[in-house]
Amino acid sequence: MEWSAGAVARMLGISPTTLRTWDRRYGLGPSTRHEGKHRRYSEDDVARLKSMVELTNSGVAPASAAASLMPSGDLDFEAAADQLDAARMRRVAVGLIARHGVVHTWDAVLMPFLVEMGERVSAQACGVEVEHVASGSISDAMRVSGVAVGSPAALLACAPDEQHSLPLDVLAAALAEQGCVSRNLGARVPAAALVSAVTRLGPRIVFVWAHDRVYADQVPLTEIEGVPVLVGGPGWDDVALPEGVQRVDTLLTAVETILNRI
User: What is the rounded distance in angstroms from the CA atom of residue 151 to the CA atom of residue 13?
Assistant: First the structure.
């Protein structure tokens, strides 16, 4: 049997809004589509959602609950990383994005993996090679998955001397998934270059990433005029932001804020 979204919501005792949110954020949506009709939920879809309801009702965070319900094949990323198999990691990441979307794939699988690797490197002084190959493979997967055509509405850049540009690749892919074109300037964007790019491109919003305070302090926020500015990353902790500059703490918040401002 197959059911509509409304029927599934009533069956599970949740609101249609919650059902749509779980679909958009975590990839827990209907898996079948018929010509000229809305997507329909299969028995497997409903069973997975029932487990989601049970987990969240027991106090499990929605993102963690959704991650636990992902197919076991999605765990292949960690196995590929252990073997330094960049091509396989890229394939797995692209497949995850296709099934679950950029935001859920990043929040539930890729970011937790990278955080764990970073902790392992700090504690054991080993695994840097795995972390580097994995980061490169994730960036490649994001670039393959996140393609949108047109004039850039959002300008993305790292702070001067900031080399961690992966978050920008992820954000660009998440925006492209929603039809928003961005221009990603990448790592270590000098202050003057950022101001020049804003003038030349005329974006509708600017996003600047910094993972360390020393890099955030170099960003010429007061020199970026006529366009809203968002900042993200732990480097902005305790930084006094000029009026009109907004900090976002999660990928989803960044995407939603940018889409609402363009």
Answer: 43
Cα 29 from Cα 20, distance rounded (Å):
8
Specify which residues 230 forms β-bridges with.
207, 246
Angstrom distance (rounded) from CA 139 to CA 152: 20
pLDDT of residue 1: 81
Nearest to 246 by CA among 224, 229, 262, 227: 229
Residue type, 232: G
Residue 145's alpha-carbon distances to 15, 100, 140, 197, in angstroms, are: 31, 12, 9, 25
* Global pTM exceeds 0.90: no
Do 182 and 210 touch, CB atoms closer than 8 A? no
Contact predicate 119/74, CB 8 Å: no
DSSP 262: -
pLDDT in tens, 58-85: 988 786 677 667 655 455 788 888 888 8
155 beta partners: 183, 206
* Residue 163: C-alpha distances to residues 115, 190, 215, 216 (Å): 17, 12, 10, 12
d(CA 190, CA 215): 11
